[in-house]
């Protein structure tokens, strides 16, 4: 299928620079696939579209302060490191900037006598393996020195608003550390937030429980590959990034019981969709397991486990957009996106939500 079919133009003003004042105050576009009807609402009314007995599956991965700013040694030039995955204690795969100037053997000082890194070798263009030397406990040091890994398009949009150079823009602002994190985030490991979950408050989750919605958790650690656009002419030729997931025993049991009893499984976000679809069999039953997934979901894919998807509005030519188009159809999703733009919905990570039934 041609990648250009998943392209659209988004006015820059609709890129959400900041989250809604309160989590559940985001807008909600609800689309029903069977009759192709669209309703406009607010997220705090999501209960209207759920049923007692539904199983809501959330991703409890916690975003780590993965962006590190330092100085190259020798030379003293600025360096930026985005942690990707821990290979062993204090050894990480990471993306670096400026990629052409940071070479094996170079050192980066993030805070003198507290946290430094040595480049061991190349991984691929823009990526390196880094060994850190850390004074004190690693995670505590990272929490103190690292920054929230906000998506590049948020930083760019904020920069453009201020008409300032990127290098003079703070990597985060007050509130980002809390709001670029779900309220139920638990297992640290993501370098990007599972954004569909950002709209839930603890109060709303408790209200859904009282209503009769079962809430269960999986863990998928989101990597930077989630932002990589599809550049191949055909979407099927795109090489999908790998992400590690974990499905607990209790979660698998409750999902499988719901499937057998014909109750709906609601996936909160594309990360949950990819996890459940990677683990499920033809009957839609999932396994309790720890595994890596490289699943690429495009139109023509037959969904096995997910009945409803809650998601945000995604970047053009992204694997996230191909996934939701596979679930609801390309023409219907594009219709929803254009109507959302006409009505001023806010797009991307800090933006509004979409419920696909």
What attributes does this structure have?
nine-stranded mixed sheet, QueA-like, six-stranded antiparallel beta barrel, alpha/beta, 357 residues, 22% helix
Describe the structure.
- The strands form three sheets. The chain has a nine-stranded mixed sheet. It has a six-stranded antiparallel beta barrel with strand order 5-6-7-10-9-8.
- The chain is 22% helix and 28% strand.
- The protein has two domains: 3-63 and 177-356, 3-Layer(aba) Sandwich (QueA-like); 67-145, Thrombin, subunit H (Beta Barrel).
- The radius of gyration is 21 Å and the shape is globular.
- It contains eight helices and 17 strands.
- It is an alpha/beta fold and 357 residues long.
- It has helices at 138-145, 152-162, 176-179, 202-211, 249-260, 270-279, 319-328, 330-342, and strands at residues 27-32, 37-42, 55-59, 61-63, 67-73, 78-88, 91-97, 107-111, 115-124, 127-134, 187-190, 214-220, 243-246, 265-268, 290-293, 308-312, 353-356.
What is the overall shape? globular
Record the strand order, biggest sheet.
2-1-17-16-14-3-12-13-15
- Largest sheet entry: 9 strands, mixed
Number of helices: 8
Distance between the termini: 24 Å
CATH architecture of the largest domain: 3-Layer(aba) Sandwich
Task: Could you tell me the CATH topology label of the largest domain.
Answer: QueA-like
Helix content: 10-25%
The share of residues in extended strands comes to 25-35%
- Estimated structural class: alpha/beta
What's the gyration radius in Å? 21 Å
- The CATH homologous superfamily of the largest domain is called QueA-like
Helix/strand order? EEEEEEEEEEHHHEHEEHEHEEHHE
The average pLDDT value, as a whole number, equals 95
Q: What's the number of extended β-strand segments?
A: 17
Question: Which spans have pLDDT < 50 for at least 5 consecutive residues?
Answer: none
As for the number of domains, it is 2
Query: What top-tier CATH class of the largest domain fits best?
Result: Alpha Beta
């Amino acid at each position: 299928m041609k990648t250009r079919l998943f392209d659209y133009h988004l006015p820059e003003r609709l890129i959400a620079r900041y989250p809604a004042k309160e989590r559940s105050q985001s807008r909600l576009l609800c689309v029903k696939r069977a009759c192709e009807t669209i309703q406009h609402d607010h997220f705090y009314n999501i209960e209207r579209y759920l049923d007692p007995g539904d199983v809501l599956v959330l991703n409890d991965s916690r975003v780590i302060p993965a962006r590190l700013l330092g100085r190259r040694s020798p030379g003293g030039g600025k360096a930026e490191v985005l942690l990707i995955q821990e290979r062993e204690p204090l050894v990480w795969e990471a993306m670096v900037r400026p990629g052409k100037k940071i070479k094996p053997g170079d050192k980066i000082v993030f805070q003198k006598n507290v946290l430094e890194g040595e480049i061991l070798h190349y991984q691929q263009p823009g990526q390196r393996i880094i060994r850190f030397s850390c004074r004190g406990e690693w995670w505590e040091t990272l929490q103190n020195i690292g920054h929230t890994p906000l998506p590049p398009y948020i930083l760019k949009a904020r920069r453009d608003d201020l008409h300032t150079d990127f290098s003079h823009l703070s990597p985060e602002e007050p509130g980002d550390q809390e709001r670029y994190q779900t309220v139920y985030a638990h297992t640290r490991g993501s370098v990007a937030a599972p954004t569909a979950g950002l709209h839930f408050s603890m109060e709303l989750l408790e209200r859904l429980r009282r209503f009769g919605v079962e809430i269960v958790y999986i863990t998928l650690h989101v990597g930077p590959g989630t932002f990589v656009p599809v550049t191949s002419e055909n979407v099927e030729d795109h090489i999908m990034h790998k992400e590690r997931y974990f499905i607990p025993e209790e979660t698998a049991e409750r999902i499988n019981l719901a499937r057998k009893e014909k109750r709906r499984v609601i996936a909160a976000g594309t990360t949950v969709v990819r996890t459940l679809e990677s683990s499920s069999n033809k009957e839609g039953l999932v396994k309790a397991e720890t595994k890596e997934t490289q699943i690429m979901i495009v139109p023509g894919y037959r969904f096995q486990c997910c009945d409803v998807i809650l998601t945000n509005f995604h970047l053009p030519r992204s694997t996230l957009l191909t996934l939701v188009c596979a679930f609801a159809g390309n023409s219907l999703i594009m219709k929803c996106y254009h109507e959302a733009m006409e009505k001023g919905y806010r797009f991307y990570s800090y933006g509004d939500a979409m419920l696909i039934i």
